[in-house]
Design goal:
The chain is an alpha+beta fold. The chain has helices spanning about 1-10, 25-30, 50-75; strands at about 15-20, 40-45. The chain has one domain. The protein is globular.
Length: about 80
């Protein structure tokens, strides 16, 4: 979260990818760091032994959200 906030503060669009079980902690930390508007995209945490192809699927499912957050940031 620190990196995402620092990058955003420099005017560069950034998105933090966070596993679902850390969603609340990540959002709280972003608020504590003073940039509640920082973009956070939640991905499903892979299960132990899950193949790499499934991990790619987790990212693919949120890809449009990632890109949309970056594009929207540039438009502001």
């Amino acid at each position: 979260m620190h990196d995402t906030v620092r990058i955003e503060e420099r005017g560069v669009p950034a998105v933090a990818l966070v596993h679902d079980r850390f969603e609340a902690a990540a959002k709280n930390q972003i608020k504590m760091l003073g940039l509640a508007s920082a973009k956070v995209v939640i991905i499903t945490e892979p299960q132990t032994g899950e193949p790499e192809t499934e991990l790619a699927g987790h990212i693919e499912r949120v890809w449009d959200e990632i890109v949309g957050s970056l594009v929207k940031s540039q438009g502001n």
